[in-house]
Amino acid sequence: MKPVVAVPDDLVELGFLRGAYGLKGWVHVQPHSGDAQVLRGTRQWWLQRTTAGPGTGATTGDVWAMPVDITGVRAQGSALVAKWQGCDDPEAAQALKGCGIAVSRASFPRLPQGQYYWVDLVGAKVVNRGGMNLGVVASLRSNGVHDLLEIAGVVAVQDPAPAASAAMFLIPMVPSYVDDVDLEARVIRVDWEADWS
Description:
By secondary structure, this protein is mainly beta. It is built from three helices and twelve strands.
């Protein structure tokens, strides 16, 4: 009987399993990020699946999670293939198809100064040079050239439209617009005006 392992409360989903690869228990992994830096750099992943209610097929909202110790990971086209201890045949790998792959935020590799993980920026307050609160980072996306901060909750200047307070807009995550990122204070300072969106 395996010992019970506490599930970390800082898990971040980074991809999912697409099914078996080969005959020795390797699996296809579809990362959510193109570079998959964290998945390549960590050796413990958590497989997750939302459980279904008995006989209903509807999800209960409960999440099943299991740690796996990674013994190998490599690029396979635009995705990855991975192997972990205890998964030794294609049937075992295929049985886990569709599981999410998460990693504890505490296990993420350290980044060089000036680089940030997206998960650390979501929820940060965005303030311009004049001290105006423009909103919070709702998500990030890439346009293929650079990352973009998607800002939610901005209050438009001199705009009487009620929908303006719920507007979403994008700020390029480049030095000409982003002055400072203070992860400890959860504040991003930008050279941007509310009416530029």
